Amino acid sequence: MSSSPISDADLHAFVDGELSEARHAEIAAWLAEHPEDALRVSAYRDQKAGLHRLFDPLLDEPIPDRLRALAVPPAEPQEAPQGGPLGRWSLQRMAASVAIALLGGMAGWLANDHFRPPPVVAHASPLSHQAAIAHVVFSPDVKRPVEITAEHEDQLVTWLSKRLGTTVRPPRLGALGYELIGGRLLPGNSGPVAQFMYHDASGQRLTLYVSTENTSNRDTAFRFAQEGPVNVFYWIDGKFGYALSAGISKDELARIATAVYDQFQN
Amino acid sequence: MDSRAILAELPRLRRYARALVGSREAADDLVQDTLERAWSRVAQWQPGSELRAWLLAIMHNLRIDQMRRPALAVTPLDDEAIELPARATQTDLIELGELETALSCLPEEQRAVLLLVALEDMSYAQVAATLNIPAGTVMSRLARGRERLRAILDARSKPAQLRVVR
Predict the structure, then answer these.
(1) Contact B55, B7 (CB under 8 A)
(2) Do A251 and B31 touch (CB under 8 A)?
(3) Class of residue A252 by CB neighbours under 10 A (exposed 0-12, middle 13-18, buried 19+)
(4) Which of A75, A224, B55, B135 lies 20 to 30 Å from A186, alpha-carbon distance?
(5) In degrees rounded to 5, what are phi and psi of residue B123?
(6) What gap in Å lies between CA A158 and CA A141, rounded to an integer?
(7) What is the pLDDT of residues A74-92, one digit of tens each?
(8) Number of domains forming the structure of chain B
(9) Strands A230-237 and A240-246
(10) What is the domain extent for residue B98?
């Protein structure tokens, strides 16, 4: 039997044990005389070994509870209640939470955050996306960046609170160098949302997007998103979703986000 | 689907997801989504077929759905600027760090094939079936992925030693 020419595919198949014994031997003989190819084969093997060294330690990690819970079928996820008081975590409760997260269209779910740090969801968030767009649309506006200016802050608060159906106040960021310019009402996913705009002495603008549309009944940690030049910190607290957007560094934005968060906690 | 069988697959699913998407949190989210979708389609499960391949196929389809979405690049937050619960620090050797970085530079379609072959030890035929692509595509993605990885790593590290494998 005459041997066919050695192809690229043969080298890969050689590494991956995809060849017949006879062909395997042919390739081995070929490699003994072709150092360039031997080098490639050796590099591919190193990659393989490296990937195992890199990722095999995960095999020995304990499985997070939220995944372990899904080894059994979720209980009637379609008919799970949307809210209700949260009691002790039971398997059924966990399944219901999963259903709520799904209904909310959210990709992640915070399991049992009493025992572990909340995971950070790496999927796109409608909240951060909408906030970034609103920032990009309104913050460059020189003449009418807001509907009601800070001069009439009382009116602004009354109006936005009425439209959102809950008291919404702009946080004070003067200590961080940012003064309120004013605010406006915007359309959200299913109703009105509020946007407050601030600027610092250099004219750098910052917007805080406040939504009351969160129905997934779960709070989140700070999350960070980036769209082009706009950095966004966002988090969910009860029914409120907050997103802080600006074209400033992540560190500085984080500092301001922390201040905003603290003020809304009080 | 048998719960014990699923539990037994979880470590490998997590490993693959972690290698595919880069971050631990995103990987566990992906595994969770995979299990949820698997249960919602449990009627399509054929007893006797390989559970892991079925779950990986579901995971792959989820990734396709996710990548079709217009996505903001959302990155997990380091605890540099604000207070977050402390996380375990990465103690990988530097060269493994380089490998991980290089891996993340591959297009996901190449990374998926490479990982299924190199990490999951799947045959080319199994990979083709799992990703629902022709065998020729498996080979071309594998070849391109490996060469690209090699090029990135070579560029970063010392000149490779010539050694003949016998």
Answers:
(1) no
(2) no
(3) middle
(4) A224
(5) -75, 160
(6) 24
(7) 765 444 444 334 333 444 5
(8) 2
(9) antiparallel
(10) 92-158
Long-range contacts for A72-79 (Cβ within 8 Å, ≥24 apart)? A72/B3, A73/B39, A73/B42, A74/A98, A74/A99, A74/B36, A74/B39, A77/A102, A77/B36, A77/B39, A77/B40
Give contacts of B7 with chain A, Cβ < 8 Å.
63, 68, 71
Q: Cβ–Cβ contacts within 10 Å for residue A203, how many?
A: 7
- Percent of chain A scored above 70 by pLDDT? 78
Residues of chain A with CATH 3.30.200.100: 126-265
Q: If you measure CA to CA, which chain B residue comes closest to A44?
A: B146
Q: What is the ipTM of this complex?
A: 0.79
Q: Are residues B120 and B149 in the same domain?
A: yes
Amino acid at A146: V
Q: Among A74, A250, A254, whose Cβ lies nearest the Cβ of B39? A: A74
User: Does B139 have pLDDT greater than 70?
Assistant: yes
List the CATH code of the domain at A126-265: 3.30.200.100
| CB nearest B87 (choices: A9, A109, A117) | A117
Structure tokens at B149: 């990885």
Where a domain ends, among B31, B52, B76?
B76
Yes or no, beta carbons of B82 and A254 under 8 Å apart? yes
Across chain A, mean pLDDT equals 80
Q: What is the SS3 assignment for B119?
A: coil
Same domain, B63 and B122: no
| B71 and B3 within one domain | yes
Full-model pTM: 0.52
Residues B66 and B18 in one domain: yes
Structure-token pair, residue A58 = 């995960």
| A205-211/A192-199 β-pairing | antiparallel
Using CA atoms, how far residue B103 sits from A58, B119, B151, in Å, is 17, 13, 11
